[in-house]
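Email to the structure team, subject: Aldo/keto reductase model.

Hi all, the expression group asked for a predicted structure before they design truncation constructs. Nothing fancy, just the tokens so they can compare against earlier work. One-line instruction: predict Aldo/keto reductase, return tokens.
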Amino acid sequence: MMKNLQSTTTLNNGVEMPWLGLGVFQVEEGQVLVDAVKVAIKHGYRSIDTAAIYGNEAGVGQGIREAIEETGVPREDLFVTSKVWNSELGYDSTIAAYEESVSKLGLDYLDLYLIHWPVAGKYKEAWRALETLYKDGRVKAIGVSNFQIHHLEDLMKVAEIKPMINQVESHPRLSQKELKLFCEEYNIQVEAWAPLMQGQLFNNEALQEIANKYEKSVAQVILRWHLQNGVITIPKSTKAHRIVENADVFNFELTDEDMKHIESLNKNHRVGPDPDNFDF
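Reply from the structure team: attached below.
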């Protein structure tokens, strides 16, 4: 039941993960980042998503520590995600990358660690490393990012532990319906990055019409659409009022008609790289 920012879904290993979190892609190290993390936690966010390649794990960690100190929110109530970058995919190198991430974040463990991209010939060894970290209790959950159906099928042929998360680009122009159905069949939770298509849909007339009906913003309508589709979402913002606004999506519900209307906007259009044609 999605009631508020602390509402969670249960992953296939029993771990609870918040439905909505803060993403920090392309947010540089510095006070703006620290403040964004603190604002989010102070306003009820419990999930923060970063990655090694973002180059901002230290700032995220500082924001988390300061927020804990100022709010009293315990670390165990927070859900922190990071990802191993393509150049580090391999058994030993992935273990080392994990240690570097937790060190920069200043944490004893991560709640979720992901393989960032499905680099051919490398992700299986990286997954074996994630399984080791998971078995050793260093991370609460493990998963992948940007994996297509065929990547998941290939990985699960050798995986001892099934991925708990597949974080992919998803928004009304890239609904990922087939991938979502596949993940649902195998109890792999889908999480959306670029859930707002990096702002490219804010002037869409159809979405604006729906937003007006509910007296909400287009961003809030899109985020609600994700949630009602059973997709975890991590909108990025550094502006306090946007961080607060993005979280105000638990007091209304889109009708089936609205959901179908938004789904009809799909064009299979990406704003990020194609996982099958990404120059790694």
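Residues 57-71 form the longest helix (15 residues). The two ends are 39 Å apart (CA to CA). Ping us if the truncation boundaries need rechecking.
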